[in-house]
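Q&A log
Question type: sequence-to-structure
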Amino acid sequence: MKRTALGLVMLITVSVAAQTVDVAPATNAARIVRSLADTSDLHNVYAPIGSRLLWTRNGKPTAQAQALLSLFVTAETKGLRSADYAVAAPAAGDDASLARFDVAMTAATLRYVAHLHSGRIDPHSVGFDFDVAAKQLYLPAVVMTLAESNDVASAIAALEPQQPEYRRLLTALATYRRIASEPEIVVPAVAKLSPSDHYDALPQLAAKLRRLGDLTADAKVDGTLYDGAIVDAMKHFQKRHGLEADGVVSRRTFAALNTPAAARVQQLEWALERARWMPSTSDAAVLVNIPEFTLHAVDRNGELAMRVVVGQAAGHKTPVFDGDIQHVVFRPSWSVPTRIQRNEIVPKVVRDRDYLARNRYEIVDGTGRAIGSSVDDATLAALRTGAFRVRQKSGDANALGLFKFVFPNDNDVYLHSTPAQALFARTRRDFSHGCIRVEDPVALAAWALQWSPEKVRAALASKREDLYVRLDKTIPVVILYNTAVATADGDVHFYDDIYGHDATLAAALAPAHTQPATMLAAARR
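Response status: OK
Response body:
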């Protein structure tokens, strides 16, 4: 009986597979298949069906096999490698060849489905704390269903991430693959190109911006004068690349202009891999993309976006993980983390014994009791060892500002406001010790609590310290790291790899690192 894509999805959501029944093979080809199926997934596919051939009828590939092979050879459109799913054609009438083809098809299908559904590698291997195990499929059941499906393409599509962002990335990948297939347009760099300057390479610049979609085809660009439509196009390009959108073409802008399209293709492929790791979120979620320095609070009513400050690239990287916002804290105090106390606070106290009092810090002993801000030699020694801790009282000058958004996690990371508002004017905003500072905490608190801004301000005006307000329903928060983003308006944005995570992922995705056990049996023969 044929199964629909919906039936496939229902089947694969079963969390625990039934114990595999081992049925003896009845034919010579089946006996060969049994000898080749030497991994657990392959065994679990073939053992219950007597190791019969799944992918050929009368010595020829089935329609389902042909449909899958067509998907395998176009794997690049999904940001994958078609070579990872290569299967040699069988020789008709040769049991050994048919058996090898069958096992290779099954191994390739197992691999393709796993890669498409939850990625090629475990995110933990590159330091991303996402639990892809929670979304794993029972792959043998998927293979059996695909082998009988009357619409393989739809069944496979149902296994991909369903978020609109993922679909937009696929569209962007197709666009940049097309751009990468054309000869590169190199834009000669000068020290600086400002609006109203003359620039001899203006035709090359216009051609590059047209190819990338920043300059419309009918925009008029004459001679060498850099002004008008091409300046507007440059501002759009700069905005898409995380640069100051002022129309002034500096060294960084020239570098972005001359980044090969093939490099942008790679960024999009890495973004697709990470999209497959993404945890499922409810109708409302907070997404923070570190390289973009932006927070997106999304729900069915739209999106609230704001700038953020993230952890310093040198030594204080914000971790990539997910959690659930449970509370908003008004006028929070700040319990200084041990590392900051040891490396930053204590040296300041050594130089100035009044530093704690002047900055509204208090000392907390081992029982949690506040013992004032005075520092003698014994107190300083206890601060050095961590026997005494430092806490900053709430207030406008508190490092957390007036708001803290709590989502319990092992990283001791949270969202908070900040008195250092000037940093939000920077284009690159990695200045924190790892926590995430938000530009508009009143708007975020109103969104999270479903309060009016006036009610939020009234809670602040009460002057109550460490006022915890529990959310009626927790809100998922995902700390992301994507250097390529496809937006709903059709733009594709690229950002600098400030933490080096792209380079780490590229190494992990190299062919030698992504060869799964399910392919080894077929590869050896």
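Response note: The chain has four domains: 5-160+516-524, 185-259, 279-333+394-494, 334-393.
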